[in-house]
Design goal:
Length: about 220
């Protein structure tokens, strides 16, 4: 079997990973590590490949301080190297789908005409859903990117904390997300754990494989 990365190393890193509660404020991601963050998000898979998302990466300390009270004062917001705010589009409409199809056609050197069927399939699928269902569907895609981000960070020893405990409206306001046509869904703080974080050494609470994985 062709193996890019050793499987036992990955499992070791998955055990090493934990939702970091206390970050070391003096440690920042390098440019290379930041690039991994960006590419993990950008290369995440999405339904139909639509990528109905944007990711706002906040390094600015003043902004982080402004956001913190709207995230239950969780220290990760100000202490992590960056906080990534994962957003979905405010509205997924025909224009966006058309833009995506044009981009796909250009990228692959395919005539737009040959992509019409695919475009109609996407639009047809969207027609069967309510606005609320489409928004929820976009939100699910964003969580896939969150998973990719956390797994890749763990693989290279970057700590992370997924954060749902925040006021979306306030984050949208402070980060002026309307101007980007998006709305926040979930946050991920990235950086490096503090030596004082007692959570780092706590045993992982997980059900046994037999309880959650069914082999047929
Ligand atoms: C979508 C999501 C949202 C979460 N929100 C928060 C949060 O707001 N604050 C926090 O400290 N941990 C948050 N967590 C972390 C979980 O509590 C943690 O992942 C879980 O207890 C398992 O522990 P572990 O990740 O350390 O293995 C969140 C996790 C996920 C997946």
């Amino acid at each position: 079997m062709f193996m890019v990365i050793n499987t036992s190393e990955i499992i070791k890193q998955l055990n090493w990973r934990y939702a970091t509660k206390e970050f070391d404020t003096s440690k920042k991601l390098s440019n290379e590590q930041l690039e991994l963050v960006f590419e993990s998000l950008r290369l995440s898979p999405s339904s139909f490949g639509l990528q109905a998302w944007k990711f706002v990466v906040v390094s600015d300390q003043k902004l982080k301080v402004k956001l913190k009270p709207h995230a239950w004062n969780q220290s990760q917001i100000t202490d992590a190297s960056q906080i990534v705010v994962l957003c979905r589009l405010e509205n997924l409409d025909k224009t966006y789908v058309k833009k995506y199809i044009e981009h796909a056609a250009n990228t692959r050197g395919v005539h737009l005409e040959n992509m019409k069927g695919y475009e109609q399939m996407i639009l047809g699928g969207m027609k069967t859903k309510s606005e609320g269902e489409i928004n929820e569907w976009m939100s699910k895609q964003v969580y896939i990117a969150l998973g990719m981000l956390m797994a890749n960070c763990a693989a290279v020893g970057i700590d992370a904390c997924p954060i749902e405990g925040f006021d979306k409206k306030k984050f949208d306001e402070i980060l002026e997300l309307k101007t980007l046509g998006v709305t926040s869904q979930v946050v991920c703080a990235v950086g490096f754990r503090s030596n004082n974080d007692k959570y780092a050494s706590m045993k992982k609470v997980r059900f046994d494989k037999e309880d959650i994985i069914t082999l047929k």
